[in-house]
């Protein structure tokens, strides 16, 4: 398979993923009960207001018509106008997305930098005390209920020790260097929570795949040839173990990061897209939800592509073009 | 004739299981996890014997833990211990039901896909696509639109958990289908379902066991997360509901016992489940310590 | 590249991406601000107020969430304000009333200006009301305009209202509920129903004490002082800036108040937290009189609930005292099961007594109505009760209502719903019992028309009693309050005696602020509370 057709197939799959996410969201919103006009208007709404709102949102048309119109606009890059805010969905999303990306990106980086060494240490001493301690610590993190931990961290580090601010992503009215500093201090607690929650998956994956590959013939051979254990472990075995870890990163992005930040953003009052989605659900803001899910799917597609590239860099067999 | 074939091609399952168990017994973490899980199930089963169903209201509102109320009381003066004990029932029920549906559906699709290669392309594309959907936001959406109830929550969690199971089981099933003894079986019978039942399913059982444990524990966390966002079942006590009510009452930082005990229950369950599955995997894999 | 250097490169690239994402620090404003001198009173402080919900809409004619109301209220004045007893008070209008039964008027305070320098005149008021009538935006005001025909600016300070039929409540009600918006900003935007007013075209224009300057959705809304605000002494608000901060989780919100990250909390405190905050150092708790009520309504289109005995029996299974004592921590007062609350002193009738909590009497009533209990003492009566899960107080007492009914052998199934499903089911009449509350029920004639007339927008019991209808219609066209009071009391008695509605309590609300802030002027209801425009503009900070 040539590189060209590989890239082409990859893009095709990305587009398919986007279409799938968009269609699932579109159908779910319209087939499940719930009336967006009611969620927006006050309780004393008359049938006339209701009819006018439904008309304004185009919800009085048949499902196929709505779908075709929606896809048509989507292809032109038009995500529509938010039901509840009357502003462009793109504007609304772009206001929230950077903060979520910052939070998710930083915690992903920290998790990888911590997770891989911990996994290696555990695997190389499998069955020993260090292994057990690392396992318990890693699993402890992923077993925590985020909001409870969030309130605890806020109470201890925010209120009692006064080290970090409570809520928000930056301090209003700060500029330049102070602003960056305030972004950093606001980021610490949410990022720590996110790292805690997902660290376990990385440590355990690295550990188990490394244990597998330490038993592989070539590792045994390398050791028999007199290569130092540490070198075999860190260079040969780990490189193999990183492959499933790369896949895991892709999966984790979808499973926890993109969605899981909802709870974290709620507790830490972080102005990201997770909280935005929750609010949009409460208000039944169809265009905003559709746009948000499309955006999340797009993030996943991009991450998966990056994962594929990293996979290729790490695995010589893929690069050889098998 | 059939008898002979069976004894010839079936892997010696009982002996492997026995070996695994013997190795597992030497793993203190795994054993401890197993005991914790058994205890939690026992508590859920024996809830009526341990505490009366929490209803109505009590005299002492938001009272800290004491001899009368081991885990303190909530903002209605109800006993938190009783809520946690009864909540174990609901939380474990949701976890078990959701993971059961997910496992059955996920395994079925994986095995069918592995055996019938034409199906596999479709199934693996669907799995890939579903895995790239943002799960929690979609769960919230469905739960909010369909109205929060135990059934909705079970269904929602199951609906977004099966692809993970399919993905894991499929790779193993694919390997099995290609083994010579399955090829041999193909020559003996024309019923693919017989082969699947006889050979493929038993071979993926260990993976399924691990999946059950992991999917259930993730289901508990998801259910608690949904409940915390107000999308739990308001009619029955669950760990998520205790946390939700503590949050609504603004009592999470002032009455530490309210979030602590249900969080601890969730924590113990997920921790024990994960440690158990790791220990089980290690015990199955003789290369360990190699 | 070796594998390790590849990984290092990937990490470096990721770091660069993240850094680039964050590389958007705001620029400092040109003029140097000199805030925060020592001394006694802090000059030009910033008042930071916490809220649990984001702003949905900056158009006050559309928005209906609390944060929308609080923030737009600081920019778009109301004609009238309200006192603790529900009596209207002057705000933008100095005088108001009726010329005749189908013509009303408002006299505006002269010399009012929008923050862009344009004068605020009667034309803006007339434009606002006519545009709302024409475009029917989703906000609360449109619902008050049923008998409104048109508004005309007869001079710069006088607006006259034409009514389509006599209505004694229309002038005070639209004066209280309606915000006045600037014609020169809203008219070019087309329909007021779809105008976002998001400040994209040159920012916001305000006639209140503050004007919105920057918005970070999900985090903060920063407002700056308008120097000319004649409604406070001296004409200049005390705090230089007001920042609304969003805390979706009330626990984090309370922590940030204790921490000093915010100066005040706008939303009502959960009843169970009031005691704790009162005893927290550095925090002052203010009581805000309630002007609304919580109630249960029985859907009379259901055969069983059409019977008065069944409704009365159900009303006797509710342990009202326990609900007020435990769930509301004694922060609520009984209305005597009347839709006219004690806070509306002029209208209140203290001869109406609350339904007695007595499950045994309820059983007897049900037997009289012909129901027979089975061996376990259970009647063949099952009702489905809906309430909003976004309303924590109701969510709590819903369980007590269910337990009480069970004592009388009646089964109540709780259906706690997500807010929008709740509204959908409420509007469709898809419930047996409805539990909910209204924030402001300031005018008995208007409210009874909405709650008990056959076509009333919030007539959730679907009551249609000719005698009651006649009384309400009569009250609406009675312009003299002295004559109106007995009519309304008669109507309330009908509602009470026939259990057309089961009004349970008026909740007195509590809000909290840092003790270094003072000078708030408390107004009734959560919507006005300590965050009404005059209160925010009068608040001052003292240095410790």
UniProtKB/TrEMBL annotation, chain A:
SUPFAM superfamilies: MetI-like. Coiled coil: none annotated. PROSITE patterns: ABC_TM1. Belongs to the binding-protein-dependent transport system permease family. InterPro entries: BPD_transp_1_N, MetI-like, MetI-like_sf. Residues 97-307 form the ABC transmembrane type-1 domain. It comes from Kribbella hippodromi. It holds the Pfam family BPD_transp_1_N. It is found in: Cell membrane. The keyword Transport applies. It is a multi-pass membrane protein. This is ABC transporter permease. Keywords: Cell membrane, Membrane, Transmembrane, Transmembrane helix, Transport.
UniProtKB/TrEMBL annotation, chain B:
PROSITE patterns: ABC_TM1 (PS50928). It comes from the Bacteria. Keywords: Cell membrane, Membrane, Transmembrane, Transmembrane helix, Transport. It is found in: Cell membrane. It is a multi-pass membrane protein. SUPFAM superfamilies: MetI-like. The chain crosses the membrane at residues 29-50, 93-116, 136-162, 200-229, 260-280. Pfam families: BPD_transp_1 (PF00528), OppC_N (PF12911). Residues 88-277 form the ABC transmembrane type-1 domain. Belongs to the binding-protein-dependent transport system permease family. This is ABC transporter permease. It comes from Kribbella hippodromi. The lineage of its organism: Bacteria, Bacillati, Actinomycetota, Actinomycetes, Propionibacteriales.
TrEMBL record, chain C:
InterPro entries: Peptide/Ni-bd, SBP_5, SBP_5_dom. Residues 1-22 form the signal peptide. Keywords: Signal, Transport. It is found in: Cell envelope. Residues 90-454 form the Solute-binding protein family domain. Pfam families: SBP_bac_5. PROSITE patterns: PROKAR_LIPOPROTEIN. CDD domains: PBP2_NikA_DppA_OppA_like. Belongs to the bacterial solute-binding protein 5 family. This is ABC transporter substrate-binding protein. It comes from Kribbella hippodromi. The lineage of its organism: Bacteria, Bacillati, Actinomycetota, Actinomycetes, Propionibacteriales.
